[in-house]
Every structure is written in C-alpha cells, then in structure tokens.
Amino acid sequence: xxxxLAGKVAIVTGAASGIGQAxxxxxxxxxxxxLAVDRPESAIAxxxxxxxxxxxxxIDITGDDAPAKIxxxxxxxxxxxxxxxxxxxVSGRAFAEEMTDEHWDRVxxxxxxxxxxxSRAAIPALKERARVTGRGRIVNTASVMAFDTDFGLSAYxxxxxxxxxxxxxxxxxxxxxxxxxxxxxxGAIYTGMTRNGFDDPEIRAVWxxxxxxxxxxxxxxxxxxxLMLASDDADFITGHELVVDGGLTLRT
Length: 252
Ligand SMILES: NC(=O)c1ccc[n+]([C@@H]2O[C@H](COP(=O)([O-])OP(=O)(O)OC[C@H]3O[C@@H](n4cnc5c(N)ncnc54)[C@H](O)[C@@H]3O)[C@@H](O)[C@H]2O)c1
Known about the structure:
There is one protein chain. By secondary structure, this protein is of the alpha/beta class. The protein has a single domain (about 10-190, about 220-245), classed as 3-Layer(aba) Sandwich (Rossmann fold), CATH 3.40.50.720. The chain contains eight helices and seven strands; from the N terminus they run βαβαβαβαβαβαααβ. The protein has helices at about 20-30, 45, 65-80, 100-135, 155-175, 195-200, 200-210, 220-230; strands at about 10-15, 35-40, 55-60, 85, 135-140, 180-185, 240-245. It has a seven-stranded parallel sheet with strand order 3-2-1-4-5-6-7, sandwiched between helices. Strand 4, helix 4 (about 100-135) and strand 5 form a beta-alpha-beta unit. Helix 3 (about 65-80) runs parallel beside helix 4 and helix 4 packs parallel to helix 5. It is globular and about 50 Å long. It starts with 8 loop residues before the first strand and ends in an 8-residue tail after the last strand. Bound molecules: nicotinamide-adenine-dinucleotide.
C-alpha cells in the first residue's frame, strides 16, 4: 500500500459528506491522521466510523472561535499540523434582484470568510511544522463557478472567485516558509449538495453530456486532486487553480 501522507496531520472541513468525506478517507488511507470537521447537526460523529485515523469534530466553521478551536483540536490530538483542506461549502440560488442579505452572508461566510479565518488560525502551526519538515499545505475547494456562472449564483460565484484570490495571496505570502496554497475547481460532482438535482435523470443527462468525459464526477475524483496537492509530489506547485471537471468547461 502506498502512503503518500505518512506521518502527516490534516484538517478536512465538510468531512461528513461528499468531497470532504471522500478526502478524509483517502488521506487516512494514505497514512495521514485526520481531524474531520463538519456541522454538529451533520453526520460527522458517525460518517467516518471504523477509520481509527479519522477523529471527528462537530463545529460550525463560521463561529467566532471555530478556527482557534479547530486548530487547537488538531494539535491536542495529533501534536502537529501539516495540511489544511478547507472544503466545506454551501450553495443556494436566488436572482440578484431578489437575493437577501442573509443569503449573501451565509454563502460568503461559509465559502470564503471561514476559509480565510481557518487558514489564518492555522498559519502559526503550519509554519512551526514546516520548520521541521520543510513543507506545509493549504488546499481550498473553489468551483468552476469561480470563473463561470449560472443564473442565481451571484453569491456562490463571488464566494468561489474569492477563494481563488485568497488562495493565490496565501501562496505568495507563505511560500518563503515552504507552505503551498492551492485550490481545486470541481465541476459537476454527485454529492450531498447536488444529489437532489442529479437524481433527476433529465438533469443528470444534461450535465453528463456537457462533460468531455460524459459522466458526473464522484467525490473520489476530487479527493484524488486534493491528495496530489497535499502530498510531497506538489512541492513546487503553489497558487495553482486545479480544475477537476471531466472537461465540463472546455467549450463555450
Ligand atoms: N458538488 C459539486 O458539484 C461541487 C462543484 C463545485 C464545488 N463544490 C464545492 O465542494 C465543496 C464540498 O461540497 P460537496 O459537493 O461535497 O457538498 P456536501 O453538501 O456533500 O458537503 C459539504 C459539507 O460541508 C458542510 N458544511 C456546510 N456548512 C458548514 C459549516 N458552517 N460548518 C461546518 N461544515 C459545514 C456540510 O454539512 C456538508 O457536510 C463545497 O465547497 C462546494 O461548494 C461542489
């Protein structure tokens, strides 16, 4: 068995479902110890049961003290921190004319503000670890909606474009410490977020046909991208936007 994350400690947010759950499991399979973070009301307590290397933490990442608590939990449990995978996210559609402040704030708080705040809280621990190992990793989940759009997605698209700008700046600021920061842009992936839509055969067929590879993505497809960026193989990759969409966005 390969172990591309042997000896590493990772925080993965949104780990009760979809991309985060698949990533927590793949990281653990590859030798990492994982703090699996998700909302207390989610299935986080049971979602990764049976995998001893995955420790759950039920917390809302938008809480004022959530970033400090998350980083402290990883350090208390595992002693150091190598990888932060900021993946938790929410969507929602409303035309801009009708979009409420609450909608805008909820989407942007989870998708970009919490990513900034958790990254900021993790930097001291990542730097400390990088002084020993020579490297640290931030991987963030954006979306193809960071550069494309659709009706009703002004808040979501703004939040995901924000993840891009935030991540590139983190990459610039943290490079001299050996810490990389990259972001993934998933295409149409079958997860808790999209299941309702993609369980409709007509909607599913439309999205399958749009992708060059003629299928929806599965959470593991994105987890593999995150693993690559989190691993030592990505030592010289930073500030990069990794599109993992099966060719969904190739043509106009
Ligand atoms: N599914 C897709 O097609 C797709 C496409 C592009 C980008 N993404 C992004 O992928 C990421 C993962 O989403 P997914 O598709 O796996 O969806 P998902 O709904 O299956 O998983 C997202 C998880 O994030 C958690 N979460 C939401 N708000 C939270 C909060 N405040 N605190 C803690 N946890 C919270 C949810 O409880 C959920 O378990 C998101 O950032 C999403 O925007 C998904």
